[in-house]
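INFO  loader      accepted 1 record
INFO  loader      residues=319
INFO  predictor   begin
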Amino acid sequence: MLRSIIALLVLLLPSLCLAQSCSFSATNMNFGAVDILSATPVSSTSTISVSCSGGLLDLGKRLLICPDIGAGSGGASSAAARQMLNGASSLNYQLYSDNGRSVVWGSSSWPYPSRAPVYALTMSLLNGSLVGATGSLTVYGTALGTPSTALPGSYTSSFASGTSFYYSYSSATNCNAPTGTTGTAPFTVNASVAANCLVSVQNINFGTQGVLSANTDAAGSVTATCTPGTTYTISLNGGTTNAAPTARKMTKGSETVTYGLYKDINRSQPWGDVNTPGSTVAGTGTGTAQLLTVYGRVPPQTTPSPGTYVDTVVVTLTY
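INFO  predictor   done
INFO  writer      dumping tokens
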């Protein structure tokens, strides 16, 4: 009896049929301290790393990557500003695809016009035998320093979701409607707002007077701008002669004119410093300018010789 044995010889070339596969990672973006009172923009960056692999049949192919970045967990208030959050308080920032920070880095899934930048890699031999491609992209960020009503504290927005990095072999030149396989690159955006205050003043001018036989009144102001919820105290020192609040001196050489500074229009509450208990002015910041009137009075007194009399009072805002 003749018997036949048939064996099947299977030849495997796994690398010929391996589809492209990409992985992504991103560094966090930290703006550090942001001054909302001066609204000074702060810049930072994040780096997205890309690593793709494929088979021999992929060699030389153009791999199109559309790195969609959406609004993040903080949301976006408009096409111009994404938001980081600290509870219910928000801090504006934006992400860009260019170092000039003029082209917003967007997504095909959000309601604003901007889209992801096009990023293309060519599949080549890596380490002499593996087919793949690697590269990196820079995400440029700017914390806008707004709004002025942002509370002091730490702010963050997370991109654990809402980032879909589409990739496929394609000759497309835009990412308006990306398709293909998706990957993600989670990262966070962080910043902090510190308690801060600014102060400015308007001088007091009693004008030109003759005989000082009656009260002469005038007013100036102190403007305090403090971060929301920041408590502050404003004191006025005794001037160049270090006098009591109602006995300050404007001088011309050795001659003087006595005057006082007050918190109220009736000139009954002196405005001084810690050396006169109860004479300072306290407030709580709102993020906007708060104008405080300083009421001045030159009381009746012996009139000195004609000329210009001046005093300098130091305004101190403590918070």
